[in-house]
Fold:
Amino acid sequence: MTKQNVVVSDCSSRSGMVTVAASTSALFSPPEALAALGGHIAMSEKKLLKRLEAGGGRVNAWVDSMRDSSPSRIKSTTEKEEQSSWILRHPSALRKFRQIISASKGKQIVMFLDYDGTLSPIVEDPDRAFMSREMREVVRDVARYFPTAIVSGRCRDKVYKFVRLAELYYAGSHGMDIKGPSKSRKCNKGNRAVIFQAATEFLPMIHEAHKALLEKTNSIPGAKVENNKFCLSVHFRCVDEKRWAVLAEQVRLVLSAYPKLKLTQGRKVLEIRPIIKWDKGKALEFLLESLGYASSSDVFPVYIGDDQTDEDAFKVLRNRGQGFGILVSRVAKDTSATYSLQEPSEVREFLRLLVEWKRLSRHARTIGAVNIQQ
Structure:
């Protein structure tokens, strides 16, 4: 029986680390999920994958979905009206900042942040998705006041190289690879080191699929295959749209040889990962539990992300009835997020306001305490 590796620091442990092993059989999706290439995907993708399994139009269905996730045309009047209606349902988190702070009163805010498209702009070369110095500074400030995690589809090590902040929690490969702060911290609630890796037995399979994808897509200009350890990303933002069908066919051929790998989709990227019951929502729940907030009513999780894969986390927050999700998007999308922001610069401003509010509230409490003593 294979195991997933979980290590959580414990102050009562002599070594400081306690290892917890659990069977990965509990992570596998039911058999019917194999036919759908995974159950934790958006409704539009479910329809897409049903069409894929039906046989005819398989590649065309993939291309249609790739095109839908990559809007580039000018909006019609009707679409502009729909955008306005969408904004009413998912108002700006900046405009509703006071309302958000009021809802968090008396609770511990825990921050969860996607990386690409949230902390850094979407760029043509994914290896150059650098965050700005100003963004890094504000994220560092946020982590001083609140437990903060980066949750990304990227390899955990790669995200850390981009962010370079040791005081954060990092959940890479869509939450399948999690590590807590490397800086020394006091061992108390909200400051616990966590190491978690789901389904390590898939690594040889993913390595093989990576080599196959490199070979199959090598002749397609602009295509880039990224190995994110527990998952693979096929980026097509630099691929001519006329070649998308060819790219989709090559990905399909590779996937057909690996029935235990599933397809999901993000912004101009095809994601390939193991068919297990694990996603960014599961990672959020795991981190809250590791931080001691699994059953707490005094926690206020905030998740900010821009991608379809972030919807799993948004749904978890809605189901918990705690905190909220913020979708980063300029266009109307089906989402379980409560609020919206348009771009990383607005994310930075929201985080700055959060830090400023916390500083002022602490200052006010300090002055109040001094007055009482006097």
Q: What stands out?
A: Confidence is low (pLDDT under 50) at residues 7-56, 184-188. The first strand starts at residue 3 and ends at 9.
